[in-house]
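pls design
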């Protein structure tokens, strides 16, 4: 076992907050939800009713039959980036996720010491919204301030990132990062000491994805924890030799000479190779530049320089319709010249909170038009303060159906789900033709939302029954969120033979889509458990006792 050093003050504080850690794992960072703006999935998806106590009960379920041979598959969710290239995120099966949760809970203190890394800019910590990880690496101001701290008197900057980081993780390498390579190999040779807990963690992570040793699902914080453990081990070998900062899988080092910058990239590649990882060899991804250089990309500076800043009579930042149109026109032109930058996303973010009245409605329409081409802009629409008085609901519904159609054709999960989220808010329906297109994508998340519309129930149920009739375990898992929602609504029976997962979830009123506004009893228990006014030393009753009124 590696010798652990004393954790930093931030980690030491977090070690004492077990409840936050457990709720972050289950309620707030289970589904992909790590961007600062929480826009991976529309708000109609949520895991807040999936509480630690429910995950604990699920983790006790014994695997039987084919589960013990094949384990689990997951729901894939295709999220498009600024260049419309999809990134496949993962919605892990609740039973598989609960097994990972149980291992992380059991070894929480060791895990936080292992992740303690002063060179990591995106660390696990307590956030006010309950999350453990918030990936704010796109926050240029924060990134600049961090870089300024460590770049003084440097002559060169070296930049490199890990190629396909989450998709390339070799799960056995977790054991090497936690125990040390030689210790892990020795334990494998000498089985008298039994399995190390890192081997058990490796096992449950693999089980969640067809027992594959290569690749982790992108999105759940369980995967982020595994990546942080491995890359923290890499960072420890670089620390003391180089000045550098890491944003998830993206490294920037500040060096005295060009030779030192080359040595950083060479050394980084060697250390990554120990864990079967490599650098992205794309020529735009490995750069050595002589300083001084701008702290941010030139297109960001251009956008900031032309952003209209004006204060109204009430002291509030505002802009006119003319200014907003000119700014967005400029952003569209700049986007064509800078295909490697998220120009339009930043541009809309810079002005969406500062528009009112007719200007807000014009910006809304402009962004809606752009969103047909770039689905990544769809989450920005609800940040624009366009009042309902400007809406023509029928016209908007027609446009969102057009957006649903194009994204179904291209099989983009996020474009379909966000379009249906807005249709639901407008109290409108997908067209019959679009419902059929969504079914043809076999996209479980999109079909789950489709099933919440009157026009979508029948085709969704027909699709689900066809899956159940085929009865292959992996295909059931690839659609578990749809099957559970239909089971919860008592439209279908439990499709999993001898597996109580769905019954346990329903017993506690767990839903993952279109949650009621009222909290469930299990959510109420979370507030009760964390009550700061409980008498000192008084232990909370169990969830079961709480539900029976024994608190």
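designed seq:
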């Amino acid at each position: 076992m590696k010798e652990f050093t004393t954790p930093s003050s931030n980690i030491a504080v977090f070690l004492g907050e077990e409840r936050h850690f457990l709720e972050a794992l289950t309620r707030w960072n289970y589904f992909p939800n790590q961007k600062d703006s929480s826009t991976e999935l529309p708000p109609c998806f949520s895991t807040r009713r999936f509480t630690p106590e429910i995950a604990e009960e699920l983790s006790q379920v014994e695997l039987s039959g084919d589960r013990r041979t094949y384990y689990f598959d997951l729901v894939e969710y295709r999220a498009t980036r600024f260049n419309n290239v999809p990134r496949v995120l993962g919605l892990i099966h609740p039973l598989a996720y609960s097994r990972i949760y149980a291992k992380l809970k059991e070894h929480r203190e060791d895990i936080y010491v292992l992740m303690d890394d002063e060179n990591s800019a995106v660390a696990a910590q307590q956030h006010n919204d309950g999350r453990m990880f918030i990936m704010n690496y796109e926050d240029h101001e924060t990134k600049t301030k961090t870089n300024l701290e460590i770049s003084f008197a440097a002559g060169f900057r070296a930049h490199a990132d890990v190629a396909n980081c989450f998709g390339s993780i070799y799960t056995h390498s977790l054991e090497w990062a936690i125990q040390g390579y030689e210790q892990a190999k020795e334990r494998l040779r000498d089985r008298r000491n039994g399995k190390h807990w890192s081997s058990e963690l490796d096992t449950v992570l693999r089980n969640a994805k067809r027992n594959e040793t290569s690749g982790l699902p992108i999105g759940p914080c369980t995967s982020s924890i595994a990546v942080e453990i491995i890359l923290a081990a890499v960072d420890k070998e670089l620390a003391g030799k180089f000045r550098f900062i890491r944003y998830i899988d993206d490294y920037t080092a500040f060096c005295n000479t060009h030779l030192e910058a080359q040595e950083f990239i060479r050394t980084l590649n060697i250390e990554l190779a120990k864990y079967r990882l490599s650098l992205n060899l794309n020529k735009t991804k490995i750069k050595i530049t002589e300083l001084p250089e701008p702290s941010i990309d030139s297109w960001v500076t251009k956008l900031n320089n032309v952003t209209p800043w004006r204060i109204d009579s009430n002291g509030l930042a505002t802009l006119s319709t003319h200014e907003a149109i000119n700014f967005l026109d400029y952003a569209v032109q700049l986007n064509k010249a800078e295909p490697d930058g998220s120009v339009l996303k930043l541009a809309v973010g810079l002005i969406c909170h500062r528009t009112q009245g007719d200007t807000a409605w014009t910006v809304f329409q402009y962004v809606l038009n752009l969103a047909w081409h770039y689905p990544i802009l769809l989450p920005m629409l609800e940040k624009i303060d366009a009042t309902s008085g400007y809406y023509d609901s029928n016209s908007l519904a027609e446009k969102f159906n057009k957006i649903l159609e194009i994204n179904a054709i291209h099989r983009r999960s996020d474009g379909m789900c966000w379009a249906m989220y807005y249709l639901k808010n407008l109290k409108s329906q997908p067209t019959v033709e679009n419902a059929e297109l969504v079914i043809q994508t076999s996209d479980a998340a999109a079909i789950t939302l489709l099933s919440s519309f009157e026009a979508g129930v029948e085709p969704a149920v027909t699709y689900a029954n066809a899956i159940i009739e085929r009865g292959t375990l992996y295909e059931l898992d690839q659609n578990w969120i749809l099957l559970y929602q239909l089971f919860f609504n008592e439209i279908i029976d439990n499709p999993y033979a001898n597996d109580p997962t769905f019954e346990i979830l329903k017993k506690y009123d767990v839903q993952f889509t279109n949650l009621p506004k009222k909290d469930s009893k299990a959510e109420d228990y979370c507030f009760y458990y964390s009550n700061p006014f409980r008498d000192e030393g008084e232990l909370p009753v169990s969830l079961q006792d709480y539900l029976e009124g024994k608190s």
